[in-house]
Fold this sequence. Notes:
alpha/beta, seven-stranded mixed sheet
Amino acid sequence: MKWAEISIHTTHEAVDAVTNALYEFDIKGVSLVDSLEVTREREQQFGEIYDLQVADYPEWGVVIQAYVPWNEQLNDLLCQLDQRIVFLKDLGIDIGAYEMTTRAVQEEDWAETWKQYYHPARVTERFTIVPSWETYERVSDDELIIELDPGMAFGTGTHPTTKLSLAMLEQYATKDDRIVDVGTGSGVLAIGAALLGVESIHAVDLDEVAVRSAKENVELNGLIGRIDVKQGDLLETVNDRPTLIVANILAEIIMSFSKEAYDLLPEGGYFLTSGIINKYEEDVIADFKEKGFDIVDILREGDWLGVVAQKVGNASCNATS
């Protein structure tokens, strides 16, 4: 079968928004070619394994690649997608010197092409992401191995926002927590939490392909029964009151349910968020403080940040008689 490979060259800031736009058009075969993978400094103690060819990567930003059937509807689809991405500028999202190109590929080619960019990587002090098709030997006794096959879902575990989220879980999650992973994607954060010893984990995503991918990765890591994966919108599927909520999604979406997150969490509960580009830092911090959260920590990597927020007690009753 003949397929069209759609390549969208844009900024790091626009990655999540463009990916969401692809999902809106039911385009879910997504992979990223990130310029930062070539230029960023790597902490060698993490033991990352890379054999990167500079010529395979863009000079700036990110190339988002997706695949759709090559048919008579293709031109209309590309036109509508282009309009949707250009509209992101009206929402205040910097798409940079945006460019979209297409090329024809055969099915057996596109199914394997993106895998050349995805190798085992030690992404935090303890977590190593290992593609399901590669072999990897543990470097240290306390290393936690997440086997992952992203399939058609967005989230290979090596994006800076995912690394920040795993680092926050590594620091703040406890075995007794009841965790909700909002926008689970490939399930990497829920799996990471389980490997840290957390027994109660609810993972949710609005996209059915992501839900299917997350379930497959849960099984791949031998964690069936430890992680409950559901399809749903944000926190609507949550029945038990969580003690920790983690969300690696767009800043505006995070702010849209921060009040609900605050209300669900007990006093002392954590709201760990990433997917936040630097330009939205002040907006997110102000929103969290307005809702009642205390900002415990802010982690950074490149243009992205992760925010550790904690629900504090109601301090409104300070009157004296």
